[in-house]
Inverse folding.
């Protein structure tokens, strides 16, 4: 990556305009977050009057405390955050575990029905939960899994994308590795744990970021399956708080909103390197 | 694979495509055991419900949900004869086109600028990347605080300036707002791909053009943009899929499809008909329509996606 291109048109004025537009972009993207962050430190009346504070106010602690532990008529973000965390982690880790072994089977073995199995997995790419909502809901209710964590997690835990990514990566593992393992008398599972899993670490990290965000941000499926306060996720709970406009406590909505976006944003920012690599390599 | 020297120069996926491993393990039951969890979930929660959706699309329940009759394609013909459904198709077209053009345009502009500032490009990426992590429904709530007519920063300013702004009453304003909120969330994803695509264009090509005296804008449209076209094409498909399916949360949190169904999209209508109106036949027929759309989009994506990896 040489910087020759930038030096050839190094007119300082152009540089300045470029930075100005980019910073404007950064501000446009940060503004909504800033407003919510600042709003969450004011009292309900200030926001209700429409003053739209752009500077911090004195009510941060009490707002977050109330939003976290809840009030008499509404459960707090505490349990909703826990539900979201369990759901996001289970979806991310579950998907990785399930897809890495199925990709391993498809790539490193020959057996009758191998192509069929691969195509069956591949086709699920074309069946996102949104197009089969009600029949899937019926299956879940027939299995008695409505309003359970299992009902929230299991139906979305298969992933064609992740299987395809692992398969693609496994194809690049040299044959010599497999031969060496065979000569050493190592069985397939030994090979899996000692060679495949360590080599896949970067892919797993990248997938974890993408799938954690996907899991945490689920909306339509939890809306249907998790109607009990006990299994409610924070994204759903936060939107429900807006329900009746007239007496919405906007300051608490804002505080809950900040809490709801914090974990996925933190994961993306902290694992940015793997995330960018994972995104551009997964081909969605 | 090690036999052919030329193939090693290709990219990983290119080399792997269609090629089988030569050395494999021979076990009778193990591969099936390894595949079992994913296949089981796929069959129970994907194939079985999808098959049911197709089957229900040909049935009709009476008002009490007691008797079910086979009605052939009647659910589909009813659907496409319904002016309200056609209105929803139109909304979806406007919405998807708006989101795709807006999010791709803004992302391309920002990525092209960030690419010129090579030292700062990574910093800008960090500053623009995080909206990707925000849930569509949360993005919608953030935009409420910008555009709410009474408590939103811009919404109030618009009203103060004499523009009657209320997205809860005006259908066009509501559509504009759901497009803005949905596009806002998707820009960072597109930005990552455009920046990666731009950074992989050989700088020598651009230098040659610069020496030939091509102005920056001309260089962009005649050299950079054509070289980016595989990325752009891939992103168009991804953005359309996003606009179709993943924006349910935006619409549900912002407008609930209103006012007067002005922001009802295909997926929102399928949800309302199944959940609220309990019209399983029609909702299933709509699911089948959606399945056909997603299948077409996936096929287009896989037909052309391989070109993308060259850049």
């Amino acid at each position: 990556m040489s910087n020759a291109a930038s030096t050839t048109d190094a007119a300082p004025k152009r540089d300045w305009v470029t930075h100005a537009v980019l910073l404007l972009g950064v501000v446009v993207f940060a503004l909504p977050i800033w407003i919510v962050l600042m709003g969450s430190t004011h009292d309900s009346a200030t926001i209700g009057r429409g003053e739209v504070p752009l500077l911090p106010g004195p009510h941060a602690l009490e707002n977050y405390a109330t939003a976290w532990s809840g009030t008499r008529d509404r459960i707090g973000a505490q349990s909703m955050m826990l539900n979201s965390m369990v759901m996001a982690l289970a979806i991310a880790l579950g998907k990785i575990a399930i897809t890495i072994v199925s990709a391993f089977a498809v790539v490193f073995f020959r057996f009758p029905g191998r192509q069929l199995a691969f195509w069956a997995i591949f086709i699920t790419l074309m069946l996102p939960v949104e197009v089969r909502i009600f029949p899937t809901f019926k299956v879940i209710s027939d299995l008695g899994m409505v309003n359970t964590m299992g009902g929230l997690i299991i139906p979305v835990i298969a992933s064609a994308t992740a299987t395809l990514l692992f398969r693609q990566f496994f194809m690049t593992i040299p044959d010599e590795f497999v031969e060496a393992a065979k000569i050493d008398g190592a069985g397939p599972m030994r090979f899996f744990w000692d060679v495949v899993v360590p080599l896949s670490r970067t892919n797993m990290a990248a997938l974890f970021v993408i799938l954690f965000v996907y899991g945490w941000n689920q909306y339509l499926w939890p809306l249907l399956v998790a109607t009990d306060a006990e299994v409610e996720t924070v994204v759903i709970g936060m939107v429900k708080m807006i329900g009746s406009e007239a007496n919405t406590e906007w300051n608490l909505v804002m505080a809950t909103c900040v809490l709801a976006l914090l974990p996925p944003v933190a994961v993306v920012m902290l694992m940015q390197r793997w995330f960018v690599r994972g995104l551009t390599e997964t081909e969605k | 694979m090690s036999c052919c020297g030329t193939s090693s120069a290709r990219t990983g996926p290119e080399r792997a495509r269609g090629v089988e491993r030569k050395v494999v393990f021979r076990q009778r039951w193990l591969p099936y055991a390894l595949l079992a969890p994913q296949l089981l979930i796929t069959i129970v929660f994907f194939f079985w419900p999808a098959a049911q959706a197709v089957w229900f699309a040909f049935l009709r329940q009476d008002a009490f949900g007691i008797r079910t009759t086979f009605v052939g394609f009647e659910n589909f013909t009813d659907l496409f004869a319904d002016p309200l459904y056609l209105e929803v198709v139109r909304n979806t077209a406007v919405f998807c086109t708006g989101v795709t053009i807006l999010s791709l345009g803004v992302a391309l502009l920002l990525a092209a600028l960030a690419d010129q500032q090579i030292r700062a490009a990574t910093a800008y990426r960090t500053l623009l990347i995080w909206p990707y992590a925000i849930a569509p429904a949360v993005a919608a709530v953030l935009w409420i605080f910008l555009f709410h007519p009474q408590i939103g920063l811009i919404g109030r300013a618009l009203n103060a300036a004499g523009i009657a702004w209320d997205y809860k009453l005006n259908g066009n304003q509501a559509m504009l707002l759901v497009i803005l909120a949905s596009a806002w969330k998707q820009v960072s994803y597109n930005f990552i791909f455009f920046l990666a695509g731009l950074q992989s264009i050989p700088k020598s090509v651009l230098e040659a053009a610069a020496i030939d005296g091509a102005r920056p804008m001309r260089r962009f449209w005649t050299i950079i943009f054509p070289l980016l076209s595989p990325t752009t094409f891939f992103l168009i498909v991804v953005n359309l899929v996003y606009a179709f399916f993943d924006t349910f949360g935006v619409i549900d949190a912002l407008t609930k499809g209103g006012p007067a169904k002005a922001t009802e999209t295909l997926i929102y209508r399928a949800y309302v008909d199944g959940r609220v109106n309990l019209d399983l036949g029609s909702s299933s027929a709509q699911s089948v329509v959606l399945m056909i759309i997603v299948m077409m989009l996936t096929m287009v994506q896989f037909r052309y996606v391989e070109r993308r990896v060259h850049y």
